[in-house]
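# nightly structure sweep
# worker-07 picked up a monomer target from the shared queue
# config: single-sequence mode, recycle default, output format = structure tokens
# input follows
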Amino acid sequence: MVRSCERGIPSWVCVGTLLLLLHFHSVTVRGAALKQDGALDTVATVLNHSMGLVQRMESLLAQGNASDVTLRVQTINTDEVKVIQAHSLMLTLQSEVFEELLLSRNTSMVLLRETPECAAVFDKFIRYLYCGDISVRLDQAISLHKLASKYHVWALQQGLSQYMTQHLSSDSPTGHVIGWYNYALQIGDVTLRDSCLQYLSWNLTSVLQSREWISISEDLLLSLLQRSDLILQSELELYEALEAWMSQNQPVSMTVESALRAIRYGMIPPQHLFRLQKQSPLMVKHYESIRDLLYLTFQFHSASPIQLAKYINVNNCSIFTPRNYLSPSWGSPWLINNPTRDDRSFSFQSQLGPSGHDSSKRVTWNALFSPRWLPLSARSTYTELGTMQPTRTDGGRPRIIVTPATSSPDFAGVSFQKTVIVMARQQGKVVVRHVYNFHQSTEEAGDFLLEADLQRRSSEYLIDSSLYLHVVIKPLYQTLLVARK
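# output follows
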């Protein structure tokens, strides 16, 4: 039976009347202000009492005053039941699913069955329907998102997706990014899925060192191993993390072989490969499945790339393609204090190539950063040596160029892909904010910091008013990639 509040009037009418009166009161106040201001020819003033209204709505839910529906939330596979006194008007205003449930009921009670995780946050979910705001913890995001999706509360669903995208770098005891990735994959949220995958790829070293790494699924593991944009210290670090994952998860042989063959052995120095052959239980056990790759790798390290290209075909072989390695052999960090002040430059060295034949050869690089300058195509200023210099302009954007300081016959057959990594602090943690890749034939990244406002001290691209960069040089043996027997 529907409850009444006074003289037999249904309670939902009372609640509706309350909301209408509050709205009429607000309109009356604003109307009076507008009328008075019209006489005085001044700008209207808005009196905002919305916070008080939210507090009254929260109190209405907490006390159950004039409620006309009882929600019995039963936790699946348990006897636990949570009872909430609610109001039909508030539920139907926010959720078409609740509207259908309430229209089809024949009593004042509605039975809802939820998983333990969703039942635990159901009070928060209902409060959002009354108040329009909600406090979210990392471990509650998926459960609340499930409830918002189930009951078609689209604004909350979208807000939770944005929350997860913006809190990938937050610290949590057991990790959350991999769980969010799996959930996004399950529900088909492409934006959240890609954001999680990018975060894992760009911050792989911290992921490998976390407890979350061991919980990664086989599909996600193989997906990451195929990527060339992974940012980590070295390929050896990735192999050792893979061995730890294998030891913990004991996957089937097909997964083991696929994962081992995705390691880029050509990027691991031969002295470390010799050690792995003898000391790595994983490699000893599955040596036959990767023997051809190891044989090719040792050939790669023992001869010059040009000589090797005469005898073997390595087309489509990823073991010769470097990832974004942060170790000193492949680049250098660059801290720029007060980046809007003036132009900066610095020099660093990288290994000519990953081949053991080139391990002792170094390339010296000059990097130039300017907060405001024109693109290369618009410059006409040259030094006496013929090198390009920045043309300062008030309308220019931040730019960076990376060029070799010298040329050498050793460069024959080698092309260099240059990557600039921008770090930032998010949720108290330093993470990769953006990655800029240079085309092999150009000196600069045209979209470098295109959306950054370096003039603003609170810019998300700055850490304590400084720009934290890491320049990575990825040598590619072009002759190897196109060679034929």
